[in-house]
Specification:
CATH superfamily of the largest domain: P-loop containing nucleotide triphosphate hydrolases
CATH topology of the largest domain: Rossmann fold
CATH class of the largest domain: Alpha Beta
Strand content: 15-25%
Number of helices: 24
Number of strands: 21
CATH architecture of the largest domain: 3-Layer(aba) Sandwich
Number of domains: 4
Strand order of the largest sheet: 11-12-10-13-14-9-15
Bound molecules: adenosine-5'-diphosphate, magnesium ion
Helix content: 25-40%
């Protein structure tokens, strides 16, 4: 999917992003003007444009066409091909309104020597058109040619664009190749084209040359102004039809500019961070061995590798900034734990942030089990912690008496302060925005006088291909746990249509009879967890009732849903973890990090409604303890072709990296990677997957540039610096300097 450019007003190029310097907002204020300076743009249209991410004249100029319409080819009306977008030139035979109120239509017959066709407008779309089309007028109509629904052999253009031609005028009005833009309610292609034209005439020449000379030369790119005209008003000689997906050569310039600004920003962020003083932590020699001794397993080589990479980072007197990615169930938690022990052993504190209360709670139990015997003081902080207890925890944190704090978003609150924060670990990092990460990292600052940033370890179970990760998360170093612990069996995945769900319940009974436990995941549409008014879709609720009351009546079933009070949720969860419940029917899918070794069965109802990565995460809940597992994906009645294909891929594929690849292909990189969450600018021209090699090459250019001119302070880079700030807004500083 394409994303439109994020709205980032020029004023946001604040000086702090650039380490000092408060130049005026830049060479080209005209570009930064709001779209309302254009003729024809009032409040309403400005709002419609804003929904496309367009607020300034520059945004409009950089609004990337989706495709182009070729209006050069002229054929006699009789020879125009059905089903194609065509240009019909002829004379109006007759034109009239027909039909009653509400169903009124305007139709015009257009003829030339070879034949005729009919043009039709409904619903008031004739406004501004009907008056032009008097009988005898010469016109050019553009639209998609369809078979006439009522007249055999007749042909029809529905809501075509109209140009009135002057008498004796043989040439079609220019331009003959028209851009087609992403458009939205309250706007039309015609309007957008007109506005872009206006903006071009007004400001195209002002567009600063952002790309350094070297990059332009290396890729043989035209200058900004020339490229802009070509982008919006391409001129082509000849009549060779445009191929599928044709774009003017100059469009590449903007793609490269966009990618270059992306990778340059990433490199900038990395440099900022590397300049920060950190806390050098030697590996743990007391706590870690004591913990490892008591574990019932040994670390896998993949875990050992990740551990070593992290330890090497922690030793450095600069803050670590590492992503730990690994397949579901690959054992990331223990690796993160060992990292935390390095901090704790030095008397530094560690914070562990989880996306949900349930996961935070699970961590707390793990900590209790692992740290209890080591006598490391730790605590759990969630929204559900009672006030007196919360006050006590905060006091102990501020005094340094509590060394390890696990919890949810509650950790981010203003009054949570650490005395000596040495390491921050964030699980399921994509669930947190870049600002939240930075907020947590800053909690160690000020207190204790040490203006040093803690180390940061973020984790994800949605691994993405390394090359892509390096580009997008280019300011993070990456460790991958690419193998599961030995003896782990990949769950068998079975696809069933909803009509065959009784088979799923049969397998569920069998799994439970064999001593296992089972999950049933039903996607109900729910309010956010905080809201107390569930709005369950009736069908799904019925199913839950049916399961509890009939199908699974003989089993001990617990129910988890988003609008439950958290105490109830946690009680249910404990009961399931301790084996007191045999089946957990869950209507939320947030609890992806759950780790219950005895679970061997999962049914996912309406599985086609989930994304691939999510399905894979869910499936990762079973077969964690070395036993066989089964995952049944039930397709809903309404599953479309695309949903079925997704399920087929899911069933076929059990490797998280491969799943991620498919997911990227299906949803596009912007969606999958959560570019906005990661604090990266949205992309209008580039597609990270398609343009990966290009991005990597450009990264080389960007690094070279920053090596020569680290703060981009030379005058020839002024425009680039300006553009960087404008494009990235706050994202540039947020992560790096905390
Ligand atoms: P994830 O990477 O999905 O967060 P966890 O850290 O929750 O996975 O680990 C999944 C399960 O595997 C846990 O029960 C953990 O104790 C267990 N585990 C971790 N490392 C190993 C190992 N080397 N050998 C066997 N089991 C392991
Ligand atoms: Mg996990």
């Amino acid at each position: 999917m394409r994303l439109t450019r994020a709205h980032q007003p020029a004023q946001q190029a604040r000086d702090y992003s650039f380490g000092g310097g408060t130049e005026p907002p830049g060479p080209d204020r005209a570009l930064a003007q709001p779209v309302t300076v254009l003729r024809g743009v009032g409040e309403r249209r400005a709002q419609a444009l804003a929904r496309l991410g367009i607020t300034t004249v520059e945004d409009l100029l950089l609004h990337a066409p989706l495709r182009y319409e070729d209006r050069r080819l002229r054929l006699p009306i009789a020879a125009l091909p059905l089903g194609a977008s065509v240009t019909a030139v002829g004379r109006i035979g007759n034109a009239s309104f027909s039909g009653r109120w509400g169903r009124r239509r305007f139709s015009a017959r257009v003829e030339d020597e070879s034949g005729w066709l009919e043009a039709v407008w409904l619903n008031g779309a004739w406004r501004g058109v009907a008056a032009k089309l008097a009988p005898g007028a010469r016109v050019a109509l553009y639209g998609k040619l369809e078979a006439h629904p009522r007249r055999p052999g007749g042909r029809l253009l529905f809501h075509p664009d109209v140009e009135l031609l002057k008498e004796g005028d043989e040439e079609l009005p220019q331009p003959a190749i028209l851009p087609v833009y992403p458009c939205g309610a309250g706007l039309s292609q015609r309007l957008l084209r007109g506005l872009v034209r206006q903006a071009l005439a007004r400001c195209a020449a002002l567009l600063p040359e952002v790309l350094p000379e070297g990059v332009r030369a290396a890729y043989d790119l035209p200058g900004a102004t020339e490229a802009l005209w070509q982008l919006h008003a391409p001129a082509l000689a000849g009549e060779e039809p445009l191929g599928e997906g044709w774009r003017p050569a100059a469009a590449r310039r903007f793609l490269i500019e966009e990618l270059f600004l992306l990778v340059l920003g990433i490199c900038w962020r990395k440099r900022l961070r590397q300049g920060e003083p950190g806390i050098s932590l030697p590996p743990s020699t007391r706590l870690a061995p004591a913990l490892l001794d008591r574990l019932p397993f040994r670390l896998t080589p993949a875990q050992e590798r990740a551990r070593a990479e992290i330890e090497a980072d922690l030793r450095q007197p600069r803050p670590m900034h590492r992503l730990l990615q690994g397949e579901v169930g690959s054992g990331k938690t223990i690796v993160a734990m060992l990292a935390m022990l390095a901090a704790l052993e030095q008397g530094m504190q560690a914070a562990l942030l989880a996306p949900t209360e349930v996961l935070a709670e699970q961590y707390a139990r793990r900590l209790e089990e692992w740290l209890g015997p080591l006598e490391v003081p730790h605590a759990l902080l969630t929204g559900g912690v009672p006030a007196p207890q919360r006050r006590r925890i905060l006091r102990q944190l501020a005094s340094g008496a509590c060394l390890l704090l696990a919890g949810t978003h509650a950790l981010l609150e203003e009054d949570v302060e650490f005395a000596r924060l040495g390491l921050v670990v964030i699980d399921e990092q994509h669930r947190f925005g870049v600002a939240q990460r930075a907020r947590l990292a800053r909690k160690g600052r000020g207190a204790g006088g040490a203006a040093r940033l803690p180390h940061l370890l973020v984790m994800t179970a949605t691994p993405i291909p390394r090359s892509l990760a390096l580009t997008v998360y280019g300011d993070l170093d990456i460790s991958s746990i690419d193998a599961l612990p030995p003896g782990r069996l990949v769950p068998e995945t079975i696809l069933l249509p909803a009509s065959h769900q009784s088979k799923a319940w049969l397998r569920l009974h069998r799994a439970v009879a064999a001593g296992g436990q089972a999950y049933v995941v039903c996607p109900l549409r729910e309010e956010p967890a905080e809201a107390r008014s569930p709005r369950h879709s009736a069908a799904a609720r019925q199913l839950v009732e049916h399961l509890r009351g009939v199908v699974l009546r003989d089993l001990r079933v617990g129910l988890l849903h988003g609008s439950q009070p958290s105490s109830e949720k946690l009680a249910t969860l404990h009961a399931f973890q301790e084996g007191r419940l045999q089946v957990l029917v869950s209507t939320t899918v947030v609890e992806v990090g759950l780790d219950v070794a005895n679970a061997t069965f999962m049914a996912i109802v309406d599985a086609d409604r989930f994304g691939l990565a999510q399905l894979h995460q869910l499936r990762g809940r079973v077969a964690r303890g070395g036993r066989r597992g089964v995952c049944v994906a039930l397709a809903s009645e309404e599953a479309g072709v695309e949903g079925r294909q997704r399920l087929a891929t899911f069933a076929r594929c059990s490797d998280g990296f491969a799943i991620a690849e498919h997911d990227l292909a299906l949803r596009g990189a912007g969606e999958v990677l959560g570019l906005r969450q990661a604090g990266l600018p949205a992309l209008g021209f580039a597609d990270l997957r398609r343009d990966l090699t290009l991005a990597r090459d450009l990264r080389g250019c960007a690094e070279g540039l920053l090596a020569r001119d680290p703060s981009l302070s030379s005058p020839q880079h002024a425009a680039l610096r300006e553009a960087l700030g404008r494009r990235w807004g706050d994202g540039l500083a947020a992560l790096g300097s905390g």
